[in-house]
Amino acid sequence: MSTTSKTFKLGARRVATIGILTALSLLSFILESLLPPLFLPGAKIGLSNIFTLVTLFMFGPIDALILVVVRTTLGSLIVGNLVSLIYSLSAGVISLGVAILLVQFVYPKISMISISITSAIVHNIVQVLVFCLLVNNMYMISYLPYFALIGAASGLIVGALVYLVIHKVPLSFFEKIINNEKYIVKEKV
User: Which residues contact residue 137 at a Cβ distance below 8 angstroms, ignoring those fewer than 6 apart?
Assistant: First the structure.
């Protein structure tokens, strides 16, 4: 399976579907921002990444990148934390880049869940490093092992949910959405 072998076509159905996935991703981001952090400041599961990975697997890297940029930008504007946009966007784009490389070159030798875990760990590491650079304080680097563990747990949860969405929703539903392209995800657990 190759996500870059598909041509990028913006049909009305595709735009509408990416819009819906982006809206769901943004909604989950906003709802999760209302919850207290997990164990450490800023730590959360990252449920909005479910929609990013579904988009990556079903539509490809360009659509997933659009979703990440729109969700992160609008999410930061809505929750009123524009400073977080800098490290959230950079971490989101870099972790998506890692996921794209894994899907392109290693998948299906490694599972969707493994891709999700790797991407979540990278996201947390990049976020901490960018935060340290922004505030010119390297003290937060001592939290990297904890954020990596939280990223692994979050990635496991998100990856399992992505797997269920992709494998439990009938393929005919996805084929209709992506204009009958034969881009079907196949994986053995």
Answer: none
The two structure tokens encoding residue 147: 């954020």
Tokens representing 14 are 């595709």
Predicted confidence (pLDDT) at residue 75 exceeds the cutoff of 90? no
pTM value?
0.80
For the segment 42-51, the average pLDDT, to the nearest whole number, is 83
3-state class percentages of the chain: helix first, strand second, coil last, to nearest 5: 70, 0, 30
Q: 109 Cβ partners below 8 Å, 6+ apart?
A: none
177, two tokens: 């959405």
- Residues 57-72 have pLDDT tens digits of 988 999 999 999 999 9
Q: What is the DSSP letter of 109?
A: S
CA-closest candidate to residue 49, choices 164, 162, 173: 162
| Tokens coding 175 | 């084929």
Q: Give the integer Cα–Cα distance in Å for 74 and 83.
A: 13
The DSSP annotation for 154-175 comes to HHHHHHHHHHHHHHHS-HHHHH
- The closest of 158, 60, 178 to 115, measured between CA atoms, is 158
Top-ranked range on mean pLDDT: pick from 4-13, 34-43, 138-147, 175-184? 138-147
